[in-house]
Amino acid sequence: MENLQQKQTADMTEDIGEEEYLAYLQRRRKARLMQSRRENLSRRNCLQLRLLLLTSVVLLVCGLAAKLFRARPVSVTPDVRKPEWITENFLTPNPYSRPQTALHEVNAVVVHYVGNPGTTAGQNRDYFESLSVTKETSASSHFVIGLEGEVIQCIPLDEISYCSNQRNNDTVSIECCHPDAGGRFTAQTYDSLVRLVRWLCDKYELDCGSDVIRHYDVTGKECPRYYVKNPDAWKQFLEDLKNPGE
Length: 246
Ligand SMILES: [Zn+2]
Fold this sequence. Notes:
This protein is an alpha/beta fold. Helix content is 49%, strand content 10%. The protein folds into two domains: 2-69, no CATH class; 86-242, Peptidoglycan recognition protein-like (Lysozyme-like, 3-Layer(aba) Sandwich), CATH 3.40.80.10. It has seven helices and six strands; from the N terminus they run ααββαβββαβααα. The chain has a six-stranded mixed beta sheet with strand order 1-4-3-5-2-6, sandwiched between helices.
């Protein structure tokens, strides 16, 4: 076999001359090299295509799974079974008092006083409403309790109010009316406040002792005035929250 090949090569060399034969060999080598490169390239392209396909399928599956299993946004504050003593009179949505920003969690209830002696709950609610026109400031409250103990709800419980500064995002706010500049609440206002705060604590599973705070506890503002100037009155209020029926 080897002899035959050598003979053929020798014959060929004789036929076409040594120089041409060498050129022929070089051309063959070059052709083989090109062929091998083409094959490699095509193999690599095939592999890349497969990887791309696999990645797309994985991404698609992950996307679908994420969509299926994503926790549905749960409204922490479905306004169901609201007591009949709460009168809903929601503000018209507007950037100054009802921006309709979602309230995702409630970690505390903040008590305020309106700071405008003798005004009614309705008047304070209408003041918040008027801000949409006057644009003089941003302010609102979820609830306003009037001098007669009436409770008006101005903002749905799944939206924030503009009342408690840096705690707007995780609290429910209550403004209380008061007959004079001292800021002490009437007995009716006080009783309604106790009832409303108890209902909220129950609804959001809050601790009536530690999760009920004054505006003062957030910013140091003298609000609600009487219960900042008289810390014992505030302590008593917290006690009253814990003792239903007394
Ligand atoms: Zn306040």
